[in-house]
Amino acid sequence: MVSITETQKIGVGLTGFGLFFLLFGMLLYFDSVLLAFGNVLFLAGLAFIIGLRRTAGFFFQRQKLRGSTFFLGGVALVLFRWPIIGMAVESYGFVLLFRSFFPVAFGFISSLVNIPYLNMGNSSSMV
Fold it and tell me: Keyword Repeat, does the record have it (predicted)?
């Protein structure tokens, strides 16, 4: 069993509230204040969960520098009250940062639930 420290529990809460404010900000026609608040909470939560050194190490790896630039540049654009452009740039950076994780996530989701389009490559589940 994995033990979770109090700091990591706070990080999970901050990340959850950050995602909530990001979603709520997009639902309210890209409200820049909610999006900025969500971005700050999300990044703070990430730092609380994995630590400041590992967070900096993740964002500033040589192979992920382009994705980090777009992601953090999008956060800056949202903070400077250009929410639509900022969220587009941030989303592109998010895809670049986590593109190696997407196949793992889709594989895990497809093993839990039978979703036809996610299982197309897996011939053993096709009956």
Answer: no
